[in-house]
# Entry
Amino acid sequence: MTSEAQRSGLPRAAGAALWTMRLDRASPLPLSRQLAAALRGAIAEGSLGVSARLPSTRNLAAELGIARSTVVGVFEQLTAEGYIAAKQGSGYFVPARLAEAKDVTASRAPAGAPRALSRQAELLRGLELRPPRQPRPFELGHADIDSRLMATWKRLASRALSGRSRLEWSYGDPQGEPVLRAAIAEYLAAARGVRCRPDQIVVTSGTQQGLSLAARVLIDPGATAMVEDPCYRSAFDILRAVEARVVPVAVDEQGVDIEAAPQLQSPPRLLYTTPSRQYPLGMAMPLARRLALLAWAEREGVWIIEDDYESEFQQPGHMLPSLQGLDRAGRVVYLGTFSKLLFPSLRLGYAVLPEDLVAPFAAARQVSDRQSSGLIQAIMTEFMLEGHFARHLKRMRTVYAERQACLSDLLTRRLGGLVEAAPNESGMYLVAWLPPGWDDGAVARRLATAGVTAVPLSVLTLARKRRPALVLGYSGHGEAAMARAVEIMAGALTERTGLTDTIKADLLSDQLAR
# Structure
């Protein structure tokens, strides 16, 4: 029998889909938003088909036990969005054009159709993203955050937010705020022998972004990039992501040895190095080798990426000048970070660039994420200009030297027959050498199951096989926590079964952002 609605040509009324709708009054989500989401879902899934007429606002409000004005507001919103349409004297219904659009979309995207990605996306998909968690010994990249630092930072933040500081509330300079760049240039000249003007600096969100921007500016797909072997893993991943041909160069007791580099048909586009404290082995590159490296770069037209990642924690009198400070040909891109020096979530660093790289580098920063937080830049500027930064570094040099000595002593007393961990110029980690023939990946895997993180040297090694070792971070871990972790290590390492088996290593702490 034909219904009255069909005889009159009116849209048919919606079925049970609306009337069985349930709203959660205990949810923090407003009832109006719950109702709108439920209606969108019913329409998108086809529960409310083409020409289905919605109940009147009065009836639906009574059925759901909510104010009629709430339903009216939701219907008006969905009308504006195109999910439903209003017809004079007939109420609200699902428009035919929406169903037609859904049918066209479905016909153009059959099940199983390929979902094309770029080559870079395919490379990046292989990188494992780790959710944040509480740090555990001996993860790398963590900092010791004391009450004095937090009290000072809070006071400076309050001043910035009160309008009594150098805070720019609108969009800022993609290169970074000029007053902060001036403070960075002054600090680097005094502490690291860097020769630059403020307009040669681009403020970044850390070393990793600086290297990523440099790779975008300097590398074409297929171009050759040289890296140290062993190498900071994220540097290797960033260069692979821009489709560089990555060539390892062996490291000896004086750092990267360019004379031992593989012979190539043409020079590489760039070389990535950590001359102040080679990561992960920890040695400093002597002056003669620095000068030879710079002469090679000038002769061959190679860019050098200098990652000066934790030189601030070495004693000032022991530090050699930066490569950038020795460079007279403008071949060095100098990268630094505040995130390791203060706290990782700061996400603030800088790149010092040859003059002809500033414009493309700043443009790459602008199209990437435009600029660093103006608030963070304002606080960091005050932190540096008022002398807090210098005092903090001096205090942390002492803290980290004591922390390294503590860990070295714990390892010697509990694992002296198995592990060699000779202290070197203090930083944020040390290398614990294992007996020859052991599998450091298997050791790291066993420790991980017991709640201790250690980076096996083998996963940072690209070509040259080295004695097995573990890279242990100590900077963000207290002495009691380290003592407990060493006890766990002692139990795991003295039970040697399986430690010469090849097991895929856990790269967790080496992948932490710098």
User: Anything to note?
Assistant: The radius of gyration is 30 Å. The chain is about 40% helix and 10% strand. Confidence is low (pLDDT under 50) at residues 1-13, 501-509. Residues 31 and 66 are 8 Å apart (CA to CA).
